[in-house]
Amino acid sequence: MNENLFASFAAPSMMGLPIVVLIVMFPSVLFPTPSRLINNRLISIQQWLIQLTSKQMLAIHNQKGQTWALMLMSLILFISSTNLLGLLPHSFTPTTQLSMNLGMAIPLWAGTVITGFRYKTKASLAHFLPQGTPLPLIPMLVVIETISLLIQPMALAVRLTANITAGHLLIHLIGGATLALINISATTAFITFIILILLTILEFAVALIQAYVFTLLVSLYLHDNT
Amino acid sequence: MASSIPVKEKKLMEVKVGELPGWILMRDFTPKGIAGAFQRGYYRYYNKYINVKEGGVAGISMVLVAYVLFNYCHSYKELTHERLHKYH
After folding, report:
1. Which residues cross the membrane (chain A) (predicted)?
2. Cβ pair A219, A109 in contact under 8 A
3. Is A85 in CB contact (< 8 Å) with chain B?
């Protein structure tokens, strides 16, 4: 049972070829490019959603921050579509791999920090010391703020990985428990099934929320630094 | 068998069974040809089911079901261990 539980998180490869690349590229098939003024229904729905989200997300940024619009929107689109596709049975979710989330988090965070240091050096350095700290506390506080800055990409990546992995594991475990309980006691199996349904609804929400949180935090880091 | 149109240019449904090996061998297996085949297949599906005036949920749900089936086939080997058999 131990090996079976984590086997679904292994990167899939067919005859040695890593088809994980295909699976990562699959969500792009579901978002066709709009080619006309009035498009088909799928594209219209997606355009409406993207407009809604982008207005919300870019409202807090100034001119310089809004150049990141494409990056943030494609980020939230990618993470939410990958998470939602991972809820289909037997599918592989790339965002459960820490390597992938680190690959997303570190460059984006580093981009915001480097932008801040390049264009507003004094203000970026000033972030290390909150206003109004008593004098003796200053050295320790600078150290603490540095650590909290350096931990931001790790937290971004690990948060996403842990949430999605935990959700998938719970679904696997409770589903297995439901199946095992059917022969023993039907009512308990029914209750476990209800729990499974609730959990699946939660996972849908978590999939979307995690995407949102990731993107929101990146945009916040951006806002601090532009 | 006498056929007035050369085998190479016929569509698959019009090729007679005896001519099938010849037809397959004449297809374009270069990377460009394979990419062209994927592109043609994609646009055939897209224009039939999604790029229509009153497209429904069927267009995209067929894609998702195909994705699920693909993943099922891929993880079949691990799934056989989870069957309800006495001896695996």
Report:
1. 6-31, 67-86, 98-117, 137-158, 164-182, 189-222
2. no
3. yes
B78 vs A4, A30, A32: nearest CB:
A4
| B72 shares contact with chain A (CB less than 8 Å) | yes
- Residue B74 and residue A7: Cβ atoms within 8 Å? no
In this structure, what is the dihedral angle of CA atoms A123, A127, A130, A134, given to the nearest 10 degrees?
A: -80
Residue appearing with tokens 């590229």: A25
Residues B81, A4 contacting (CB under 8 angstroms): yes
C-alpha to C-alpha distances, A57 to A79, A157, A160, nearest whole angstrom: 15, 20, 19
Q: What is the pTM of this model?
A: 0.84
A74, pLDDT greater than 50: yes
All residues of chain A having their beta carbon less than 8 Å from the beta carbon of residue B68 are 88-91
Of A4, A14, A91, the CB nearest to B68: A91
Among residues of chain B, what percentage have pLDDT more than 90?
Answer: 10
Is the minimum CB–CB distance between B51 and chain A shorter than 8 Å?
Answer: yes
Q: Do B75 and A90 touch (CB under 8 A)?
A: yes
Q: What is the reported pLDDT for A35?
A: 87
Q: Report the amino acid identity of residue A159.
A: R
Q: Do A14 and B74 touch (CB under 8 A)?
A: yes
- Report how far residue B72's alpha carbon sits from residue B54's, in angstroms, rounded to the nearest whole number: 31
pLDDT tens column, A51-60: 998 888 888 8
ipTM > 0.85 for the complex: no
Q: Which residues contact A55 (CB under 8 A, 6 or more apart)?
A: none
B1: pLDDT confidence band, cut at 50, 70 and 90?
Answer: very low
Which band of pLDDT confidence, cut at 50, 70 and 90, is reported for residue A11? low
